[in-house]
Backbone:
């Protein structure tokens, strides 16, 4: 019983991080057909914003010193501003360009951010301790679960349901959904392209900040390259979920988290180092069977 | 002053010309049909007016304001609304959400609810299915929804691209009856793409014939219908779309 509960908490908390990162990518893909490969760097940027710029191995807290009640909103806003700025400075000029050109621009932006961080903070990973007390295990359903895992699960639920409410109940949410489904049609009904796209970037950046806080608390490391691996998983989750489908991105994020934890637990010991190879083999199988994604949005094509 | 003025407008997709120096004028409250074979540029003309595609030459004006070069959302604010080819309704959203997308540009917030009620009056099936996913509607219902959605922006000029495409004749009748009634009620100006001159003649209005991206003929829809009848008599009713 205890192991099952343990696996469950591991799977849901890992899946939650993936789901939030995937949402950040799916939101932007939905409104402008851009796979924003700089998203991982938004996450790294938010992590480094917590510490004082220096090349020392041990990080001195900067924003991270603030109490949680100030720190959390501040970092969310910072992430949102970062993403909005990159839209204004870079992606806005690629609106009419090929999606491929836009994607390459996002790679370039990612490198710029990464190298900027590298120049300021150096390449050595830094130990960083944000809210260390959250890693103390507590006893739930026969399993020892770090408090952070519970917080991640609750935070994911809050973020996902908050986003769902925003999209379902507000004017900007309605416009974003319409724009995601058919951008030109939405504009012909008066939906302002700039408002919707800036809004999507702001939400995406705030999601990156949320992921950053969770990752840094969990791993205790700030690494300039930390965005790459989470970006990869998040991108795969958006593809498996059906590009641009927000529920799909969330579901696929959780699915990848769950499969990853299960493989880790049940693969023979010798095969465990190759867990990711098994995981990505499943991804390939999945895409061969359903290239449009597992949760592709309902067919919006007209019936004739 | 004309409601809509199109002056020497050309559109090209890459190097392929779709419209060549097209000019037309619509007066307030008027109804005009655009006809022509597939690929004649009918949809390109409507998309150019709505700002969805860029013009390579020429000028488009509405109420004396230049629309050319402005984004679609600005043109919608000017009072132009579009029911596009293939309806393009938002299939993953509910019927009512579809109707609400276009209300963001309105200043008369209080009138929105009564306008939605009015659309449910005109198309009762939409009212019954207001919380259903719009993608699950039949083709005819989607057409009604697309018209209702376009009306919700409170337009002065509405463009409808092939309302009869893929619909049963009795549904087409219903769609046109509603369009004509709405036009009389609201003083709308209508620009409609319609292949059938007989249909256009029955509804009544001016007609413009496009071919190869240029206007080749225009006049009263009834004259077109008579010519087409004549053609049918000579060619034995064979499909002479391009003749």
Residues:
């Amino acid at each position: 019983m205890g192991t099952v509960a343990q696996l469950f908490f591991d799977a849901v908390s890992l899946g939650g991080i993936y789901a939030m990162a995937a949402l950040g990518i799916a939101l932007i893909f939905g409104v402008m057909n851009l796979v924003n490969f700089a998203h991982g760097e938004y996450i790294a940027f938010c992590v480094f914003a917590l510490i004082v710029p220096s090349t020392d191995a041990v990080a001195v807290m900067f924003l991270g010193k603030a109490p949680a009640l100030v720190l959390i909103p501040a970092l969310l806003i910072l992430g949102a501003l970062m993403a909005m700025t990159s839209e204004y400075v870079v992606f806005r000029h690629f609106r009419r360009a090929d999606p491929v050109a836009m994607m390459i621009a996002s790679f370039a932006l990612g490198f710029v951010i990464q190298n900027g961080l590298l120049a300021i903070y150096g390449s050595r990973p830094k130990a960083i301790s944000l809210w260390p007390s959250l890693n103390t295990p507590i006893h739930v359903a026969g399993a020892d679960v770090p408090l952070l895992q519970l917080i991640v699960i609750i935070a994911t639920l809050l973020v996902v349901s908050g986003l769902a409410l925003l999209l379902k109940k507000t004017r900007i949410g309605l416009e974003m959904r319409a724009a995601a489904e058919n951008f030109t049609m939405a504009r012909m009904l008066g939906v302002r392209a700039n408002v919707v796209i800036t809004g999507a970037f702001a939400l995406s950046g705030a999601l990156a900040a949320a992921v950053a806080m969770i990752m840094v608390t969990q791993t205790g490391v700030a690494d300039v390259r930390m965005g790459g691996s989470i970006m990869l998983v998040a991108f795969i989750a958006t593809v498996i979920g059906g590009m641009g489908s927000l529920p799909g991105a969330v579901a696929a994020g959780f699915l990848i988290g769950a499969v990853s934890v299960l493989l880790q637990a049940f693969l023979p010991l010798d095969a465990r180092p190759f867990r990711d190879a098994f995981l990505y083999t499943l991804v390939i199988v999945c895409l061969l069977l359903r290239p449009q994604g597992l949760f592709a949005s309902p067919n919006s094509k007209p019936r004739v | 002053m004309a409601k809509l003025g199109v002056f020497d407008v050309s559109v090209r997709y890459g190097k392929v010309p779709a419209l060549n120096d097209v000019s037309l004028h619509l007066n307030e409250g008027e109804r005009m049909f655009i006809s022509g074979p597939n690929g004649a540029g009918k949809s390109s003309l409507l998309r150019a007016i709505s700002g969805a595609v860029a013009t390579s030459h020429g000028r488009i004006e509405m109420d004396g304001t230049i629309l050319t070069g402005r984004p679609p959302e600005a043109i919608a604010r000017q009072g132009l609304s579009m029911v596009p080819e293939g309806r393009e309704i938002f299939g993953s959203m509910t019927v009512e959400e579809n109707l609400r997308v276009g209300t963001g540009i309105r200043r008369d917030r209080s009138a929105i609810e009564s306008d939605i009620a009015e659309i449910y009056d005109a198309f009762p099936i939409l009212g019954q299915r207001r919380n259903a996913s719009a993608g699950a509607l039949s083709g005819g219902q989607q057409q009604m929804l697309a018209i209702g959605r376009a009306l919700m922006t409170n337009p002065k000029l509405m463009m409808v691209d092939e309302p009869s495409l893929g619909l049963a004749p009795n549904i087409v009748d219903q769609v046109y009856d509603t369009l004509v009634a709405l036009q009389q009620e609201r003083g709308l100006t209508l620009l409609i793409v319609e292949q059938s001159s007989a249909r256009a003649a029955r509804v009544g209005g001016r007609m413009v014939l496009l071919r190869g991206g240029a206007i080749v003929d225009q006049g009263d829809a009834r004259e077109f219908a008579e010519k087409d009848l004549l053609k049918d008599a000579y060619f034995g009713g064979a499909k002479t779309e391009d003749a």
Observations:
- Chain B touches chain A at residues 50-52, 71-73, 75-77, 81-82, 84, 86-93, 97, 100-102, 104-105, 133, 135, 137-139, 142, 149-150, 153, 165-166 (CB under 8 Å).
- The longest helix of chain B spans residues 169-186.
- The mean pLDDT of chain B is 89.
